[in-house]
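Have a close read of the entry that follows and walk me through the local backbone shapes. See right below:
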Amino acid sequence: MNTPFVGYLAVFGAAAAACLLGAYRARRISDPDTRAGLVALLLTSAGWAGTYIGAFLASPPTLVRGFYLAGLVVGASTVGAWLWFCSAYTGRTLHRNPILQRTALVLFVGIAGTKLTNPWHGLYFYTEPAALPFPHLAVHYQPLYWINVGLAYGLAGVGYFLLFSLFRTVESGGGRLGLLAGLTALPLAGSITGELLPGLLNVAHEPLGVAAFAIGVTGLYRDQFQSVQITGTRTAPTFRMAPDGTLVDYNEQAAALLPASHPDSALGQPLAHVLPDVAAALQDGTSILQRPQGSSLRYYQLSTGEVAVGSSPSRQLLLSTDVTDRFEQQKALARRKALLEAQAESTLDGLLVVDPDFRVVFYNDRFLELWTSSDDLPDASLDEQSFLQVRRALIDPLLPHPDAFADKVEHLRTHPRAETRALFHLVDDRWIDWYSSPIVHQGTHFGRLWSFRDVTERRRMLERLLEVQEEERRRIDQEIHDQMGGLMSALQFKIDLLRRELPEATVPTSQFEQMEELVDGLSTATRKISRKLYPGALSVRGLAEVLPSLYRDLETEYGLMVTDDSDLAPDDRFSTLVERTVYWIIQEALINVSLHADTDEAHVVITSDEHRLSLHILDEGRGFDVSNHDDDKSFGLEGIRRRVERLNGTFELASTAGEGTRLSIVLPHHRPLLEELPSSRGPEIP
């Protein structure tokens, strides 16, 4: 048998076997993308070598040409596998770029098309029988082949650049791997020689170089192959140590942290000798390494982990460079947090902060004082508990109607940018002013602040003030009644006496009649003032009995017909403060209607339940713009609003031009803090 023939079969067969064995061993590579790229490179190279073996063994020229064409197509695919491998191994993401992937696919299809159509255009290669180095069908390449070879090696050069850029960043193993990578390009010389010398086969010898590379990276230098990837692809300073703590390798970023002595002296030495401050920090469990730099300090983040390289476990140490800014920010935030916590503890408000998921992230002692007793403190911290848990455990038991509060909380949860405020009357007779607002910074929602303040004393002082005001009104009304009533009676008596004593010729009767009209007008005005100051009958008879009299007076004086659709019973009584406020609001509002609404009808509706009294006053007059009404209306309405707010009620005004106005008031029930004083009023002024 021809010796050169056997030699070529053996060489390419060995190359195919080496590539297949390398692909099998490559399954141990931990990085999936690197593993996929290397396996694809080795399998396509094995297939490439196999096509040449088929061409050597085939006899019919057509079959030989078919094997050559298949080899050219498979060989082109090795370029894509090579670039994928180089990108993944060096820590890049070029192989995952969709644009580059589509470009590579289009390029491969175009190149494969020029090769497969060679039987028609003959611009890629042609064949002819040859006797050396053994009888075979020789291939002669045309210019289109060399153009594609140049393009393929140009693309492969990108991969070489990526690899050698990585190899130069590590201290150990990069040189040997660089030589192995260079072997993949060396067979190009054999391909060129085969074209020039008739004693060699004119075939691509690249599978031989890939086979040598496979033997090196998956066999002889497998540990160095993975070690270089682990160390070199780190952007942070990285040291790799043996189990005994000696330095095995490090990257160029780590070299800048070594002592001024030559870095080569660090390999094989214990970490404690080379970097004693780092070793001490690791020994103490410190995660931040502090190093002086000029007149300032720099901070580095330390982290360690066990990394398996081949069959030998090694310890990896990472120094994250220049975390000084982050560390300084953390210290500033810590100082700010301490200041805010001190302010939070010094405030009179109970504070609770939740994150966007309504989990507690902060609360102060005052919050616990408001919602717990000294004997009922929670066993565990409220941190990380949900607001629902806190509400059910601490807040709901003190609320007379926890469901209403739960509805408000749910509204805030579904409307994270909303604000709200309310006043709670607890079952222990305390009053809590509650406010909740979102925590937003530069458009980002970070959670919600809940503020609770005990306003019981302020509430009682306000109610006492209102009661004192009412008593002052009662006193003034009493004085008007006692003094003005007596004066009016004396004046009327004097007029009657003069009428009898003076002859009609001296003082005409019309003069006496005019004086009597003035006295009647003065009496009427006095009664109006008295009724506004303090409707005395209200304390005795209640709203249901007194309001009809008010409606009759308004009809007589202003021509206003009032329809009352209230559901009040004669024995429905409320606190004196609520009854007087409702009476005064109805009186003021209806006078306002008669003067400004341009209508002679109005409707009053009063309803009441266990907790609140609701008042609605409606008319179908001309209406007005509530945002731009005149001063006369504004003065009366603002007075009503202020009175309602003092009693923690709600005021709502709606009006549409040409359709009328609706005034809605809701007042909570509450007991007066001062006992009712007995009325000493006499009869009404005539």
In short: The chain is about 55% helix and 20% strand.
